[in-house]
């Protein structure tokens, strides 16, 4: 009887209905947490709690398979590999941006002048309002949402037709699978998929550990991951996303959104849960565009991802419509580039340099190439294993990278592009071969490590398990002696002003200085005997040498150049033992008591002090008058700020960053470079930038100079 049937199915139905409500609640919770974690970088619950709720959702969905929907957070990975990528015709073409090749500020002026001319603005008309953004170095993506659900993700392709990569994009946690209910029925979000540099390094590290091919750069790795056929592979590649615009959107007449400005549109995207770069800002007229270009140039190397320039867009959407397009580029936007950080050139030879620790570094001699704003003729190859792994040979076409002050490096090889038919291009960059090793059947290296030091002729050895070859000559090797002297004189070590590379070369090559204490014995006559040395410079250097004698134990220890003993370890040692003699007499076990000193460091210190000639050097330096205040050992944990992590940002009135750091460290605090959940205080001075923003975002206590002094227990 129908009535009875109804009675029977009623409880089952309500069970399903209840599950549906529960599932919805769990999904909302997970989506919110995932957004906080992946987009805002501000997790709200421990990972374990997230996992617990996630598993609860999985269990419920397993019980009610009919309730599983593609936009459920459990469905990010899954689905079978595709046989091939399907072409997608874009509803609104994905345009490119005109590139202003003039990397000087004039580039921004030229764009502003063009916009003003096209708009018919008089010279005395008010400045045009723009939005300035970063030009991310990844690949463009179109995300199509229908009724708030992600239905398709497509690459740009040729602008008209791209490829369907939804299966891979779904695996990206930063990309919402479902949007809040206030979105228009059709919404296409456009932006850039990229890989952060640290994620790229970690990926390569993992590849290396597994003995697999390494990738050349974040951009091509991201492009390769997005175009994978198997979403399981893409899911393992840490991809990220920044939104910067719209594609097709339900028109205003049909109830779609009505924005006045591009900036409003970006704010709305942020509201809907898309990552929008924090640097994005409104800018008035050419002068503010120029200021933005300069500010980002200075920040570029500190950004966690690669950019190749900035983008300026006319802010008013009405003005954008008025300006329109020219061929395939909008007249209302321009890309203002920075010098490229990666270029292709040829390796003409490989030289071997000997460093302070005796490490032999193979250095590629390159056909000169303009990278990262300078002409580069040498690039490090790190060690023999890196050469082998990258399959580098003398004569190869290679990709050279130079970012910021970083030493240029050879990142990988390219076959001659002209005769390689398999090369494909993604946004104008060849990917097939860049993505991993060149497809060589057999790699026959044409470089060998020398068996004897190219500088002093001593034997070259490689310790088991070590990647590096070393010269065994020690301070007998002039190369090591020079580096040891430069390290000793460095600002953070003995701080001997004026003792630079040229002078050290002269002193060592002229056999004036053999060991560190010789520095304090040169005297005026010895100095004046050097070529190109004037009376004034000689006097200055002697004064600097004299001044350096009064130092600290930590600086002295660091200056000795003991392997693995960096500035921080030297400070820890000095603090822990209080006096040099206590360190000289310490056993390995006692050394291990020092915070952050592990077996490798303890062994290195022990080995150093076990060499009679090293002890001799230490004694002679003391005999020459090098001295420092000594005191009783200080227990780290008894210091007032022990266990506290502090980050400094911006400029403080009347206090240098170095001094602030020294004061904090003396009080036991750790001074870190970046703000995280673990930071206890951020000390913000004038012009504090992203670190301050991050602190506020994470709710970390922010101090000014007065606050800092109070923390240190002193009056400002
Ligand atoms: S807007 C109509 N904004 O640059 C303008 N593009 O040639 C459409 N890109 O491959 C693009 N950062 O993926 C825009 N902040 C940004 C961008 C950006 C990087 C890339 C884009 C495309 C190329 C445009």
Automatic annotation (TrEMBL):
<feature type="binding site">
    <location>
        <position position="337"/>
    </location>
    <ligand>
        <name>NAD(+)</name>
    </ligand>
</feature>
<dbReference type="GO" id="GO:0006281">
    <property type="term" value="P:DNA repair"/>
</dbReference>
<feature type="binding site">
    <location>
        <position position="477"/>
    </location>
    <ligand>
        <name>Zn(2+)</name>
    </ligand>
</feature>
<dbReference type="Pfam" id="PF12826">
    <property type="entry name" value="HHH_2"/>
</dbReference>
<dbReference type="InterPro" id="IPR001679">
    <property type="entry name" value="DNA_ligase"/>
</dbReference>
<dbReference type="InterPro" id="IPR033136">
    <property type="entry name" value="DNA_ligase_CS"/>
</dbReference>
<keyword id="KW-0520">NAD</keyword>
<keyword id="KW-0436">Ligase</keyword>
<keyword id="KW-0234">DNA repair</keyword>
<dbReference type="Pfam" id="PF03119">
    <property type="entry name" value="DNA_ligase_ZBD"/>
</dbReference>
<keyword id="KW-0460">Magnesium</keyword>
<feature type="binding site">
    <location>
        <begin position="47"/>
        <end position="51"/>
    </location>
    <ligand>
        <name>NAD(+)</name>
    </ligand>
</feature>
<feature type="binding site">
    <location>
        <position position="133"/>
    </location>
    <ligand>
        <name>NAD(+)</name>
    </ligand>
</feature>
<dbReference type="InterPro" id="IPR018239">
    <property type="entry name" value="DNA_ligase_AS"/>
</dbReference>
<comment type="function">
    <text>DNA ligase that catalyzes the formation of phosphodiester linkages between 5'-phosphoryl and 3'-hydroxyl groups in double-stranded DNA using NAD as a coenzyme and as the energy source for the reaction. It is essential for DNA replication and repair of damaged DNA.</text>
</comment>
<dbReference type="GO" id="GO:0005829">
    <property type="term" value="C:cytosol"/>
</dbReference>
<keyword id="KW-0464">Manganese</keyword>
<dbReference type="InterPro" id="IPR013840">
    <property type="entry name" value="DNAligase_N"/>
</dbReference>
<dbReference type="InterPro" id="IPR004149">
    <property type="entry name" value="Znf_DNAligase_C4"/>
</dbReference>
<dbReference type="Pfam" id="PF01653">
    <property type="entry name" value="DNA_ligase_aden"/>
</dbReference>
<keyword id="KW-0227">DNA damage</keyword>
<feature type="binding site">
    <location>
        <position position="313"/>
    </location>
    <ligand>
        <name>NAD(+)</name>
    </ligand>
</feature>
<feature type="active site" description="N6-AMP-lysine intermediate">
    <location>
        <position position="135"/>
    </location>
</feature>
<dbReference type="InterPro" id="IPR010994">
    <property type="entry name" value="RuvA_2-like"/>
</dbReference>
<feature type="binding site">
    <location>
        <position position="456"/>
    </location>
    <ligand>
        <name>Zn(2+)</name>
    </ligand>
</feature>
<dbReference type="InterPro" id="IPR036420">
    <property type="entry name" value="BRCT_dom_sf"/>
</dbReference>
<feature type="binding site">
    <location>
        <position position="192"/>
    </location>
    <ligand>
        <name>NAD(+)</name>
    </ligand>
</feature>
<dbReference type="GO" id="GO:0003911">
    <property type="term" value="F:DNA ligase (NAD+) activity"/>
</dbReference>
<dbReference type="GO" id="GO:0006260">
    <property type="term" value="P:DNA replication"/>
</dbReference>
<feature type="binding site">
    <location>
        <begin position="96"/>
        <end position="97"/>
    </location>
    <ligand>
        <name>NAD(+)</name>
    </ligand>
</feature>
<feature type="binding site">
    <location>
        <position position="156"/>
    </location>
    <ligand>
        <name>NAD(+)</name>
    </ligand>
</feature>
<feature type="domain" description="BRCT">
    <location>
        <begin position="636"/>
        <end position="716"/>
    </location>
</feature>
<dbReference type="InterPro" id="IPR004150">
    <property type="entry name" value="NAD_DNA_ligase_OB"/>
</dbReference>
<keyword id="KW-0862">Zinc</keyword>
<dbReference type="Pfam" id="PF00533">
    <property type="entry name" value="BRCT"/>
</dbReference>
<dbReference type="InterPro" id="IPR003583">
    <property type="entry name" value="Hlx-hairpin-Hlx_DNA-bd_motif"/>
</dbReference>
<comment type="similarity">
    <text>Belongs to the NAD-dependent DNA ligase family. LigA subfamily.</text>
</comment>
<dbReference type="GO" id="GO:0003677">
    <property type="term" value="F:DNA binding"/>
</dbReference>
<dbReference type="InterPro" id="IPR001357">
    <property type="entry name" value="BRCT_dom"/>
</dbReference>
<keyword id="KW-0479">Metal-binding</keyword>
<dbReference type="GO" id="GO:0046872">
    <property type="term" value="F:metal ion binding"/>
</dbReference>
<keyword id="KW-0235">DNA replication</keyword>
